[in-house]
Amino acid sequence: MDLSSHAAIVIGIFVGVVSTSVQSLGLTLQRKSHLLEEQQPSQRPPYRRRRWQIGMGLFITSNILGSSVQIGTLPLVILSPLQASGLVFNSICASVLLGEPFTLLSLIGTVLVCVGAGLIAIFGTIKEPVHNLDELILLLYRRGFLVWLVGQGIIILFLQCVAQMSNNSRRSGNSNRWRIIRGTAYGSISGVLSADSLLLAKSAVELLIRTVVTGDNQFTSWPSWIIVISLIAAALFQLFYLHKGLKLCSTSVLYPLVFCVYNIFAISNGLIYYNQAGRLSTLSSSLIALGVLILLSGVLALSWRLEQSSQPFVQDADDGPPMDDEESEHTHLLTEPPSSPSVSDGWLRYLNVKSVSFIRREPSPTLPTRYGAIPRRRTMTETREILAELESESDSSSPTGSHDRSGQLERSNGTGQLALT
């Protein structure tokens, strides 16, 4: 290996370390933006938040520039562990920026994720020669790959249903657990679409290389542009579902999960699309399966760590909706006793008792309301008696006369339940 090759590897490793760390920083900033916005009474859309804009910009830039340099300068044996190092940066950013505790379980989960990701990436990739457009179309229309595409669609639909059902069931049981389920479902969809984006990007790059090297333009027919358009659509949807997952789930769980799903489906896409299943040895298949199990164990360890450390505020479903202004006003009046034993205070106490009877009526068997009861309307006679007594109170200055009128009003109510103390 000459000096230029050594320099290229050094540059590739440096760019890889920087890009993976910046990518983790971008994801963590997006997650922090979502967490801070949830605490605001009026929430803004993500594209209007400066922290989210910076995070998304860092994530996209590091993916485009970092991947381009690494693929062109690093061999697979170095590139695969370097990609797994992003999981370590992700744990560090989550602990520093999000305040998530880095416990022994965090360390174990991170190590398991890195080891599993390295096994999957090293033993799961097989070199393939450059194809032209006609060869790619023949590979695309193979029955095995079409069945695999239908299977991917079913998997994505199933994950979408899981996310929807967990959204409908988030009030039952542990709400934080349902949020994690929704976030991991969206993250899994993002991982599947990311693997499809890689396959489409590889096909587009093969067409571009064929065009530049041989001079045979591969972009003169519509199938080539369908590949490019599909690549853009898959990349955008991948970012969309990743964004939805970040709103619900911590990056300590989401990033390793997306990486795991991405590697599994990327390997499967290569084996099925390029018909490489027979070229993968039994040892490689076993090590890939072992890597998947180790990586999933690490993801579960990180998820359990979050469940042990997080204590989210969840309103109990039995508590009902919060009190509105009307209920708060009644509660305020009932909890403040009169400052002096005057007749006007007696009238206030009388109206407070009326307010209690207004709220605590027996429920109607046919017309339930928000409070579960229908208040009885005052009759016109009761209303006129109250108004008359209030007018008499304002004209009279004798405490004794006022007390007598209060007693008359008490006797005028036929229920006998509103006795004044």
UniProtKB/TrEMBL annotation:
Bilayer disposition of the protein: Multi-pass membrane protein
Keywords (A to Z) from UniProt: Membrane, Transmembrane, Transmembrane helix
Composition skew (Polar residues), residue ranges: 409-421
InterPro entries registered for this protein in UniProt: EmrE-like (IPR037185), Mg_trans_NIPA (IPR008521)
Protein origin, superkingdom: Eukaryota
Compartmental location: Membrane
Keyword Transmembrane helix among UniProt keywords: yes
Signal peptide: none
One GO cellular component, as annotated: membrane
Any one Gene Ontology molecular-function term assigned to this protein's record: magnesium ion transmembrane transporter activity
Segments of skewed composition (Acidic residues): 316-328
Segments of this protein annotated with the region Disordered: 313-343, 367-421
Protein name in the entry: DUF803 domain-containing protein
Protein source organism: Arthrobotrys conoides
